[in-house]
């Protein structure tokens, strides 16, 4: 199973904010830190705010921070709020025509069990369990150009 880039970015934002709990971060700061698309990140931040994971403040001195302590943010919930679907194969999608072997297929049950196990592991994690020590979090790379 592969998570979407949207979910990946959502988790990265939460980790970044969790490592920097005493300051507000900006979208620009996070996009530069991870070298990711600003347009994509704006949508991610909007969704995280709508689901109550982060608080955002506009204007001068604005930015974002976690809306609740990291130990109160469940990773399974975040993934459920950011993934559009969990159609591992087409037979999971009821909008698709049924597979020819669906009545006798065992694969669907195996994949359902794998998905359940995957989500059980994520449900057992909080953001706090994913946070590295702030001193070990890699510092941003600033490119410096020297002219002769």
Observed structural traits:
mainly alpha, 148 residues, Arc Repressor Mutant, subunit A, 6 helices, two-stranded antiparallel ribbon, single chain, 2 strands
Question: How is this structure best described in words?
Answer:
Helix 4 packs across helix 5 (107-123). With 148 residues, this protein is mainly alpha-helical. It has helices at residues 5-19, 27-34, 38-50, 75-82, 107-123, 127-130, and strands spanning 54-57, 63-66. It is elongated and about 60 Å long. The chain has a single domain (5-136), classed as Winged helix-like DNA-binding domain superfamily/Winged helix DNA-binding domain (Arc Repressor Mutant, subunit A, Orthogonal Bundle), CATH 1.10.10. It has a two-stranded antiparallel sheet. The mean pLDDT is 90.
The amount of helix comes to 40-55%
Oligomer: single chain
**Any idea of the CATH class?**
Mainly Alpha
Strand portion, in percent?
5-15%
Spatial order of strands in the largest sheet:
1-2
CATH homologous superfamily title? Winged helix-like DNA-binding domain superfamily/Winged helix DNA-binding domain
Count of β-strands: 2
SS-derived structural category:
mainly alpha
Total of DSSP H or I helical runs spanning 4+ residues: 6
What pattern of helices and strands is seen along the backbone?
HHHEEHHH
Number of domains: 1
Average pLDDT figure: 90
CATH fold label: Arc Repressor Mutant, subunit A
Shape designation: elongated
> Could you tell me the radius of gyration in angstroms?
19 Å
Query: At CATH's second level, what is the architecture?
Result: Orthogonal Bundle
List the uncertain runs.
none
Main sheet overview: 2 strands, antiparallel
């Amino acid at each position: 199973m592969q998570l979407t880039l949207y979910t990946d970015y959502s988790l990265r934002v939460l980790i970044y904010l969790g490592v920097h709990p005493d300051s507000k971060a900006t979208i620009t700061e996070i996009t530069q830190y991870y070298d990711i698309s600003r347009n994509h990140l704006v949508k991610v931040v909007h969704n995280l705010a709508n689901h109550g994971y982060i608080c955002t403040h506009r204007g001068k001195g604005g930015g974002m921070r976690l809306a609740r302590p990291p130990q109160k943010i469940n990773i399974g919930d975040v993934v459920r709020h950011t993934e559009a679907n969990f159609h591992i194969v087409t037979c999971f999608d009821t909008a698709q025509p049924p597979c020819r072997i669906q009545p006798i297929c065992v694969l669907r049950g195996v994949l359902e069990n794998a998905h359940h196990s995957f989500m059980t592991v994520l449900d057992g994690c909080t953001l706090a369990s994913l946070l590295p020590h702030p001193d070990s979090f890699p510092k941003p790379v600033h490119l410096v150009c020297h002219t002769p």
